[in-house]
Amino acid sequence: MQVALLDADSLEGADRAALHAAIEASEAELDSGRVVAEAELWARLRALR
Description:
Blueprint: H1 13-31, H2 38-47
């Protein structure tokens, strides 16, 4: 995986707030142990096809 750092993006106030809220919610899920194994994640994603 490659990650590119950008100096700017096109997010506006509400979109940026929603992104930050989603990141914080994800971190809370990790902290509480609500996670799945990588193999299960891939299986679930493949099932969506």
